[in-house]
Design a protein that fits this description.
2 copies of one chain form a homodimer. Chain A folds into 2 domains: 56 residues, Arc Repressor Mutant, subunit A (Orthogonal Bundle); 131 residues, Tetracycline Repressor, domain 2 (Orthogonal Bundle), CATH 1.10.357. In chain A, 75% of the residues lie in helices and 0% in strands. Chain A contains 10 helices and no strands. In chain A, helix 5 runs parallel beside helix 8 and helix 6 packs antiparallel against helix 8. At the A-B interface, helix 7, helix 8, helix 9 and helix 10 of A face helix 7, helix 8, helix 9 and helix 10 of B. Chains A, B: GO terms for molecular function: DNA-binding transcription factor activity; transcription cis-regulatory region binding. Chains A, B: Pfam families: TetR_C_43 (PF21597), TetR_N (PF00440). Chains A, B: Keywords: DNA-binding, Transcription, Transcription regulation.
């Protein structure tokens, strides 16, 4: 038992674990949720099926690890942007760039994968994860207000939620830079005359 | 063969077909995509399993019909709002209300269901559907510019795409009316001081 725990702890930091998670999202993108089999993940990661089970108990455990790994790594990037020196407008632009890449990476599969990963209390688990993003965006809005760049009368919590909500896959293709500039422009200045 | 086609055409307008589609989204919400079985749908719709197969060839056909039925019905409601007399601000507010309800109804499952429904060319099919929404929102933006309510220098296509992008599930719960008012406020006036 002690041996098993030791292997698991070591496994958490192993590069093979990352490779398996990377392979999982690749298989998900190509075959969708119903096409995700541990065999396929092992093949894509170029490891044996048994190696996958060394790191993850089952498919559900793998999906849960995938969501947490990817989501927390996205939040770390967002935190870095929020904590950076610079104007609110610059940091908002950087956040939107990260957000659009994140949405594209998952192509709408995130919530469905999350549900398979944690079927008992999906909403509660996701809310816990999402609260990190909300907190980071509240810090961004507050810092914008302190710098005199964001309207002081705006509610911090709801403004952070609005920025978080601007995140869906546009589905249609637009020139990337023009689209990102436009998102920033509209969020900063609005559309009204 | 002629008889079969006649049944299918009649089936398309039958209330039982609607009840089965309604039951499908119910089962999806409760059990997720992997828990969706035709037996469960039949039970929820209070029909026999054979009845489901009278209307839909298989699970994939059922999911495709579900996406098209729900999405086109959402677009019809959006069209009604866009075509309505009234200020741009009012119609934008109504659109956001429809959009947030739509997102809540699917809870992030839409894209995953679409992928199961049409695995060969998901992106192409979704783009075709989404183009309707884009067209409707372009009409809304244009009418706002004609009424002198929307900044004339804004690109119509990208502004419509930005409004469409403001659509993700906030995950966290906010008071509904305050949240909707805030989305409208930020889209209309922006956050910048």
């Amino acid at each position: 038992m002690i041996h098993f725990i030791a292997v698991t702890v070591e496994a958490r930091t192993a590069p093979k674990r990352e490779a398996i998670l990377e392979a999982t999202i690749q298989v998900l993108r190509e075959r969708g949720l119903s096409g995700l089999k541990v065999e396929e993940v092992a093949k894509e990661a170029e490891v044996g099926k048994g190696t996958v089970y060394l790191y993850f108990q089952d498919k559900q455990d793998l999906l849960k690890a995938l969501i947490e790994h990817r989501t927390l790594s996205f939040y770390r990037k967002v935190e870095e942007v929020v904590e950076r020196q610079g104007s609110f407008a610059q940091r908002l632009g950087e956040f939107l760039r990260l957000r659009v890449s994140w949405v594209e990476e998952w192509r709408g599969l995130w919530a469905a994968v999350a549900r398979e990963a944690q079927p008992e209390n999906t909403q509660g688990w996701l809310r816990g994860l999402h609260q990190h993003l909300q907190d980071l965006l509240e810090r961004l809005v507050e810092s914008g207000q302190q710098r005199g760049e964001v309207r002081p009368e705006l509610d911090v919590e709801l403004t952070a939620a609005t920025i978080a909500a601007l995140a869906c896959n546009p589905q249609l293709e637009f020139p990337r830079e023009a689209y990102l500039n436009h998102l920033s422009e509209v969020l900063l200045k609005g559309v009204a005359l």
